[in-house]
Amino acid sequence: MARFDSVLETIGNTPLVDISELSPNPRVRVLIKLEGLNPAGSVKDRAAKAMIEDAEKDGSLAPGQRILESSSGNTAAGLAMIARVKGYPFTTVVPENVSIERVKLLRAFGAEIVASPAAEGSNGAMRRAQALAAEHPDWWFSFQYGNPANPKAHFEGTGPEIWRDCPEVTHFVAGLGTAGTIIGVGSFLKQCNPAVSIWAVQPPAGETVEGLKSLDEGFIPPVFTDNDGYALLDRSRVVGPRESIEWARRLADVGIFAGISTGAAMAGVARCASEIDEGTIVTVSPDGGWKYLSTDVWTGDLDEVVERAKHELYF
Amino acid sequence: MPVAVEVRLPNILRPLAGGEPVVKAAGGTLREVFDDLVRQYPGLQGSLFNTEGEMHRHLNVFLNDDDVRYLGRLEAKVGDGDTVTLMPAVAGGAVAG
């Protein structure tokens, strides 16, 4: 059905697209789930909706109450959109070095934006949000890094959708981020078939890759530790900005215009495909490329773009 | 067969290794590389190993960008010219261990 009563009902049920022509191994199929097609533009719409609706159900979020989050873009966009639809005021802490598109998108949905220092990255934004939450106990802090509704959205949504559309999946590759996607989808797929292998990708410490948050920047999300993330994973690899950007560019060959975290996931997929004899790899494209156009990721000189990626927060 | 590898240290461990960001070590497995590191820099013992002689749980170790937790931990085989990267692991927003 393509008719809906609310835009919120269009969150999820994203397409899974076969892009095996990009696989470095002819015996390995590759499918990618296009989460950028969610209404506020990213996979984070799922967690945003689940966190808000769980809080409404358990009474921790009341009508008119202000919602608070820290996010470098996608979660804030999802929350801002849903908050606007449902009539909640929304404040988000955003590192000051995110791309201008994200700030403008948040403003379009009426979000109040608090800037945090660029040098402190998304960890600094999170600490600032924690301080704001302490100062304003009447606000509701969704805290995506520790909110069980975040992985639950993927255990109940993304994971079952992948299993429904691709029960032959042998490997699932995804970025760590808040760990919501990999914990939720990974747990669901292992429950369906314990032989499914779960591979994580993360950026190098001290370097930023859009959509990914290194475990080694100083914070392991409770979503990861509370769900025994180390035991769930079968492999975990570091992927640098250069290969992430190269893969983001290569995705255009199959008509996919996606953000750099998708490129990082694809770099992980390529390594996985090269190491296994045969199989079917499923990965997630967290968002489209629209919010990063001003960063010249696709059109700039590769060396310059890679260098800039080390300083600018792409997510 | 021991081979030479490059070990990259995080800021927090550099003072224990003469302030160097990158040091050389030899060994055929990660355990042998760690043993060689401790021979050269005894101060690293407590950061690499726990009291049972196993890999410290609050340490992330990557062998050529691959987390060694999934490669056999201390028994992971290392090859000539490999790079071992050490990173402190933290949880819940505070440096642990």
Instruction: Specify the biggest β-sheet of chain B.
Output: 5 strands, mixed
- Total E-strand runs of chain A: 10
Beta content of chain B: 25-35%
CA-CA gap between termini of chain A: 33 Å
The CATH topology of the largest domain in chain A corresponds to: Rossmann fold
The gross shape of chain B turns out to be globular
- The whole-number mean of residue pLDDT values of chain A reads 92
Number of helices of chain A: 11
Q: Within the CATH hierarchy, at the fold level, what is the topology of chain B?
A: Ubiquitin-like (UB roll)
Q: What is the chains' assembly state?
A: heterodimer
CATH architect. name of chain B: Roll
Number of separate structural domains of chain B: 1
Largest sheet of chain A: 6 strands, mixed
What is the correct CATH architecture of the largest domain in chain A?
3-Layer(aba) Sandwich
* Helix/strand order of chain A: EEHEHEHEHEHEHEHHEHHEH
Strand arrangement, major sheet of chain B: 2-1-5-3-4
**What CATH first level of chain B would be assigned?**
Alpha Beta
**CA(first)-CA(last) distance of chain B:** 33 Å
Name the chain pair whose interface involves the most residues. Answer: A-B, 20 and 17 residues
Q: Structural class per helix/strand content of chain B?
A: alpha+beta
Contiguous uncertain segments of 5+ residues of chain A: none
Describe this structure in words.
The complex is a heterodimer of chains A (315) and B (97). The model of chain A has no long low-confidence stretch (mean pLDDT 92). The two termini of chain A are 33 Å apart. In chain A, the strands form two sheets. A six-stranded mixed β-sheet of chain A has the order 1-2-10-7-8-9. Chain A has a four-stranded parallel β-sheet with strand order 5-4-3-6. Chain A is α/β, with parallel strands linked by helices. The longest helix of chain A is centred in the middle third of the chain and has 17 residues. Chain A has two domains: 183 residues, Rossmann fold, CATH 3.40.50.1100; 98 residues, Rossmann fold, CATH 3.40.50.1100. Chain A has eleven helices and ten strands. By secondary structure, chain B is α+β, with helices and mostly antiparallel strands. Chain B has a single domain, classed as Roll (Ubiquitin-like (UB roll)). In chain B, a hairpin with a 2-residue loop joins strand 3 and strand 4. At the A-B interface, helix 4 and strand 9 of A face strand 4, strand 5 and strand 6 of B.
